[in-house]
Amino acid sequence: MLADIEQAAARIAGRVTHTPLIRSRALSDRTGRPVHLKLENCQPIGAFKLRGAMNAILSLGEAERKRGLVTASTGNHGRAVAYAARALGISATVCMSSLVPANKVEAIRALGAKIRIVGASQDEAQAEVETLVRNLGLTPIPPFDNVEVVAGQGTIGLEIAADLPDLETVLVPLSGGGLAAGIAVAVKALRARVRIIGVSMERGAAMHAALAAGNPVPIREEETLADSLGGGIGLENSVTFPLCRDLLDDVLLLTEAEIAAGIRHAAEAEGEIVEGAGAVGIAAILAGKVVLSGPTVVIVSGGNIDPKKHHAIVAGAAA
Predict the structure, then answer these.
(1) Residue 49 is among the residues annotated as catalytic for this protein
(2) pLDDT for position 99
């Protein structure tokens, strides 16, 4: 699959940003090991999701594009699909649950996509996607369980392997597994001994539950500061679950207070506005849940947090 990721990198070049990899003095001093932040919050949509969405859409045939696109999202993937669709002159519909924060919904609407709010879970939003595909013939762009989407996210792995050759550990937010799987494929193909550690929240960590059970399982979606990591992985998951099962070295879970501490640290010590999902790697280090043995990359996956919520967290509000 490394070849798919390399092809994705060529396909999306010029349409996404090769994001900065910066050394965190605060985290390096804290751990005694070099810690770098991969700032995917610097993408045009404020999150890594643009990579996978753009690659998947550019991989479509003309007839598939003309039918219009549809996707389910916890926010950032929908924004990525809407952004890519507008850039390519394609119509897009984004289905989301009522748990998606209003700022993310409005950002998608501002890009010209049609919005459907359905139910209180990612699974219900996905069911609406399937209905629209069946009834209207729209072309689905899956949020994670798709080879082209995973390959697009894997371009992050190519970048960090090139930018930090002596890399030893990657801390990556873990939800449906597209980001973690793509990075793991790329990095382990190029640096076989690198540890890839998935990081998620305690409240509704679907991939963690699936890995523990040995297969995808239903899970109740809960409100969390790491809202972008919510939702199930799909009981028919055929791409990201086996890749995460085979390639992840560990999975860490965080409390809401720990995630809040990660958001606060990003603002105060790193000068970065980071959403809960993007802060989980930082949070895992602050909470002492990972022992670092050498140069480490923390994937800061996105910065699309509601400004009022961010202000309250940085000011010390309870999680």
Answers:
(1) yes
(2) 94
In this prediction, residue 317 carries a pLDDT of: 74
How far apart CA 128 and CA 134 sit, in angstroms, is 10
Interval 58-79: pLDDT, tens: 999 999 999 999 999 999 999 9
Of 123, 140, 157, the one marking the end of a domain is 140
Q: What are phi and psi of 21, to 5 degrees?
A: -120, 105
The residue from 59, 175, 228, 301 that is catalytic is 301
Number of domains in the chain: 2
Candidate list 38, 49, 104, 188, residue with the active-site label: 49
187 and 103 in a common domain:
no
The CATH number covering residue 264 comes to: 3.40.50.1100
Which residues of the chain, if any, have pLDDT below 70?
A: 318-319
- Residue 319 to residue 302: CA distance in whole angstroms: 19
Six-digit token string for 36:
């770098």
Q: Is 73 among the catalytic positions? A: no
- The pLDDT of residue 189 is 98
Question: Are 310 and 183 part of one and the same domain?
Answer: yes
